[in-house]
């Protein structure tokens, strides 16, 4: 059983920090929400590393919004619903496609500079989009430009207090209401923070897998915290693997943006053969789950650990101008995109599921909100459409801020404690445990799944459950505890869904089954693992 709190504590014996809005995490979701809330509230931002350590920073392709006169919200809606494989919430998608352009304008007001051509925004097209609607910055450094602009605003805002290198341990709740968070300071001491609203902006679970495009901080902390606090967690089986991450000796799994295929790149197996025509009529621009599994099939058929992405037929000027970051990164490892085929393989990329949130970003716990990848708003369904993630963060960030302004201040005194008597016994080498967990997830809960493998994976994960009875103090120990929680949830959800849909593929149930499974998987701590429920779309 996963405990209510990660650590032993008594609230009455801790210092208390009072504020209005508590934002946990940085990235586009955290910074955008913090800026909006600061217009009327005092904001405290808590990051376990810094504002610059998030998935947003590494987002290359861009941000999807209806800007062109040739485009329309209805086109964007259709593309999103199609990619989501029947599990999108149509109302949430409507919110995204209609409010996305205004969110982009807000980013521009905050100082984000998007690329232009001939006085108009330079729009590109990505996989499964029917129109050119992807705004980008500095070619393929969109995320970095957004982080640069927002971080500058946050750091100079007198109404935002920033706590870097602080670890949010657990949410503090009473009677279904969240009233704060327990935080561990850099020196190991702890403090309780109270506020009228808490916004989780902690990102996804990429570090569940050995091969990932995510930074080291993506350890599922917000999902695990919310689960322990009793919030509803939804659709954890839908974890997106990006088809094309750099796969080269000595190089990290660097993302080779979907926009490269959007600009005409081919995928080739190690024999040099294009192969996507065997798998989907949209070829290289098919939905990500289709492309990722196609690549895996080709790797197995040719007994290789990679395939190639080839854009050498495009002009060197276009490649260097459109993809300067990717071009330079590959060049550092002796690979020239203008003349070489680049070796790539799938890697864990994005969590579609997460903490269930309504159209105002509010979770099943009052005063607790979730924004960005940590949330499950219903926008992405079973498979996120490329470049919709940044749009979601700003659209729902604005709505969260509007909802918080309607909340009354906290009333009364709250108390919480955990006297579990955890032993201070050493928990062993965390690095080894984390690597073993990642290998288990890759092997049994990866791009392809089946009942036998999922049961074996669950058994291996459950052997780690005694961890929760240990006294955890170091950041890597706490992160591992959160990763284990998310791994258990994801494996159980994948075991439960006996069909294939979007990013979830079961070899023993290879067909999509709308009659029985066009439903969401719901998990709550009050219900033991194995007692997940289903929720209608």
Automatic annotation (TrEMBL):
Its EC number(s): 1.4.3.16
Top-rank lineage group of the source organism: Bacteria
UniProt entry keywords in alphabetical sequence: FAD, Flavoprotein, Oxidoreductase, Pyridine nucleotide biosynthesis
GO terms, biological process: 'de novo' NAD+ biosynthetic process from L-aspartate
Active site: 288
GO cellular component: cytoplasm
Pathway: Cofactor biosynthesis; NAD(+) biosynthesis; iminoaspartate from L-aspartate (oxidase route): step 1/1
Role this protein plays: Catalyzes the oxidation of L-aspartate to iminoaspartate.
Protein name, entry field: L-aspartate oxidase
UniProt source species: Cohnella zeiphila
């Amino acid at each position: 059983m996963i405990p209510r709190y990660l650590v032993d504590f008594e609230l009455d014996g801790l210092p208390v920090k009072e504020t209005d809005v508590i934002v946990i995490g940085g990235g586009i979701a955290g910074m955008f929400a913090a800026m909006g809330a600061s217009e009327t509230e005092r904001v405290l931002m808590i990051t376990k590393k810094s504002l610059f350590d998030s998935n947003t920073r590494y987002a290359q392709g861009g941000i999807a919004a209806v800007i062109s006169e040739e485009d329309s919200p209805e086109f964007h809606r259709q593309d999103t619903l199609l990619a989501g494989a029947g599990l999108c919430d149509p109302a949430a998608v409507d919110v995204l496609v209609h409010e996305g352009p205004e969110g982009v304008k807000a980013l521009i007001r905050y100082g984000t500079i998007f690329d232009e051509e001939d006085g108009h925004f330079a729009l590109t097209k990505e996989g499964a989009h029917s129109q050119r609607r992807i705004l980008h910055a500095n070619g393929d450094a969109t995320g970095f430009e957004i982080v640069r602009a927002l971080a500058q605003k946050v750091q100079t805002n007198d109404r935002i207090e920033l706590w870097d290198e602080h670890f949010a341990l657990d949410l503090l709740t009473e009677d279904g209401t969240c009233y704060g968070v327990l935080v561990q300071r850099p020196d190991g001491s702890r403090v309780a923070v109270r506020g009228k609203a808490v916004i989780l902006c902690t990102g996804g679970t990429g570090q569940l897998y050995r091969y990932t495009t995510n930074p080291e901080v993506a350890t599922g902390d917000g999902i695990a915290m919310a689960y322990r606090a009793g919030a509803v967690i939804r659709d954890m089986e839908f974890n997106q693997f990006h088809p094309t991450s750099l796969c080269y000796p000595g190089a990290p799994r660097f993302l080779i943006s979907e926009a490269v295929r959007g600009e005409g790149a081919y995928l080739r197996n190690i024999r040099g053969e294009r192969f996507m025509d065997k798998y989907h009529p949209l070829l290289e621009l098919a939905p990500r789950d289709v492309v990722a599994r196609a690549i895996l099939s080709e790797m197995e058929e040719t007994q290789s650990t990679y395939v190639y992405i080839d854009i050498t037929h495009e002009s060197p000027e276009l490649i260097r101008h459109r993809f300067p970051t990717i071009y330079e990164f590959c060049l550092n490892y002796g690979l020239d995109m203008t003349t070489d085929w680049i070796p790539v393989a799938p890697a864990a990329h994005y969590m579609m599921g997460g903490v269930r949130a309504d159209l105002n970003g509010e979770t099943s716990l009052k005063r607790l909100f979730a924004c960005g990848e940590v949330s499950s708003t219903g926008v992405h369904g079973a498979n996120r459409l490329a470049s919709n993630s940044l749009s979601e963060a700003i659209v729902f960030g604005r709505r969260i801020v509007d909802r918080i302004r309607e909340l009354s201040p906290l009333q009364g005194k709250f108390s919480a404690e955990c006297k579990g008597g955890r032993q201070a016994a050493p928990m062993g080498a965390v690095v080894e445990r984390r690597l073993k967990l990642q290998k288990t997830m890759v092997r049994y809960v990866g791009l392809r799944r089946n009942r036998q493998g999922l049961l074996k994976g669950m058994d291996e994960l459950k052997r780690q459950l005694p961890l929760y009875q240990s006294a955890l103090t170091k950041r890597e120990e706490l992160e591992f505890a959160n990763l284990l929680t998310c791994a258990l949830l994801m494996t159980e959800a994948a075991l439960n869904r006996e069909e294939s849909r979007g990013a979830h593929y079961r070899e023993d149930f290879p067909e999509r089954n709308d009659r029985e499974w066009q439903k969401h998987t719901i998990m709550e701590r009050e219900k033991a693992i194995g007692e997940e429920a289903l929720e209608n779309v």
